[in-house]
């Protein structure tokens, strides 16, 4: 305990900086994942045959070890934040894409037909019917993706992108448990806070009718 206290006294300001770097890398990757995966997931519901191929390819990419992806980007992008964010972005896509595709595809066809009968355009049906009904499942995918990325972002320090992984790997190199704990505990706290925050957002975006049905179930 004394070692951890000494670590905080000696590295408190740097810990705040590394925490900010960790949040920046993780959340930027998630935002990019949202920007790409949600429109792509909606588009794929219109072409189911293509959807299986695209989701399959993304799933295969998800199985590639994260260090391998980081190493792959180094010859093209060098080291630092950019390759780290792109690598994490690749990992963020699958949960969001799969949940978006599944939830939009499962929207009741009778509701879509009702919207079409009212003269709604394709965009109006997406915005007014499909996305509101699919939003809880989409948000669940964003939530899972965000929590995973908080943990994976620790590997970004391997290519000089900063973050709390710097403390963890310094502790491993120096055989100093205080550095490992000083990096690992904030990562865990960030992951838990992210899960709580996105869980609240998930409830907020859930249509009232669905929330009421869940309460009575």
TrEMBL record:
Membrane topology term reads:
Multi-pass membrane protein
Location relative to the cell: Cell membrane; Membrane
Any one Pfam family match given in the protein's UniProt record, by short name: BPD_transp_1
Q: Is Membrane set as a keyword in this record?
A: yes
Q: Which residues cross the membrane?
A: 23-44, 51-74, 80-97, 147-165, 177-198
Location (main, coarse): membrane
Name the InterPro entries on file: ABC_transp_perm/SBD (IPR051204), MetI-like (IPR000515), MetI-like_sf (IPR035906)
UniProt entry tagged with the keyword Membrane: yes
UniProt keyword terms in alphabetical order: Membrane, Transmembrane, Transmembrane helix, Transport
User: Which PROSITE patterns does UniProt cross-reference here?
Assistant: ABC_TM1 (PS50928)
Q: Where is the ABC transmembrane type-1 domain?
A: 19-198
The entry's family comment says:
Belongs to the binding-protein-dependent transport system permease family.
The name of this protein is: Osmoprotectant transport system permease protein
| Species | Alkalicoccobacillus murimartini
């Amino acid at each position: 305990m004394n070692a951890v206290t000494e670590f905080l006294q000696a590295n408190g300001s740097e810990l705040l900086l590394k925490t900010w770097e960790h949040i920046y890398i993780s959340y930027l990757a998630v935002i990019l994942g949202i920007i790409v995966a949600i429109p792509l997931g909606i588009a794929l519901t219109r072409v189911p045959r293509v959807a299986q191929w695209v989701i399959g390819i993304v799933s295969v990419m998800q199985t590639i070890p994260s260090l391998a992806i980081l190493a792959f980007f180094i010859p093209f992008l060098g080291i630092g934040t950019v390759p780290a964010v792109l690598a994490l972005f690749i990992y963020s896509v699958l949960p969001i894409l799969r949940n978006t595709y599944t939830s939009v595809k499962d929207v009741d066809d009778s509701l879509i037909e009702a919207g079409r009968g009212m003269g709604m355009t394709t965009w109006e049906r997406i915005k007014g019917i499909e996305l509101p009904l699919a939003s809880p499942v989409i948000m669940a995918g964003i939530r899972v993706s965000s929590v995973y990325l908080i943990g994976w972002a620790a590997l970004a320090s391997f290519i000089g992108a900063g973050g709390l992984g710097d403390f963890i790997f310094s502790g491993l190199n120096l055989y100093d448990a205080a550095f490992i704990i000083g990096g690992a505990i904030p990562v865990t706290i960030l992951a838990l806070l992210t899960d709580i925050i996105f869980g609240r957002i998930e409830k907020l975006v859930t249509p009232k009718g669905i929330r009421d049905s869940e309460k009575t179930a």
